[in-house]
Specification:
3-stranded antiparallel beta sheet; 16% helix; globular
């Protein structure tokens, strides 16, 4: 898959039909990104930063179990698509576990806190009568409680 990936490729596959990988949908995972390439005549390339992933779910139909495939549903915040489907991939449980671990690792490495997921895009949670206009937009801990002040 021709992507602009800068890290090592941790996993790649393509959408399967039954157990055959006859598809123009390709998936690739590197240290910081999940890439999805769709199409033949008209091709779409989607890139998602791993730290934006908030949930990973595995769904397997009876047919997928028989064929050794499954669909991993990736819930994402602040992206065009809120759910990315890695459809009919091989070894779906291993991919789910790998993706979950990589998401946790990158969030820890980049010190991503709740500000990425709470309050900024969805109207926010404010307590103690806090005025949303008084929120520190960079999430800096000004009061020393260990949490960004906009929570």
């Amino acid at each position: 898959m021709a992507t602009q990936s800068m890290g090592d490729i941790a996993w790649k596959d393509r959408k399967h039909w039954l157990w055959f990988p006859f598809s123009f949908t390709k998936y690739e995972l590197d240290d910081e990104h999940l890439y999805v390439q769709r199409g033949f005549f008209s091709t779409t390339y989607d890139e998602t930063l791993l730290y934006r992933i908030v949930d990973v779910r595995l769904v397997r139909t009876l047919g997928q179990k028989i064929c050794g495939t499954g669909t991993v549903l990736v819930s994402v915040r602040v992206d065009q698509d809120h759910v990315i489907e890695l459809k009919n991939i091989k070894k779906p449980m291993e991919v789910k576990r790998l993706l979950s671990k990589m998401v946790e690792d990158i969030r820890n490495e980049k010190k991503v806190v709740g500000k990425e997921f709470y309050g900024i895009m969805g109207g926010g949670h404010h307590h103690d009568g806090e005025d949303p206009d008084d929120v520190n937009p960079d999430g800096v801990d000004d009061d020393g409680d260990g949490m960004p002040d906009h929570f």
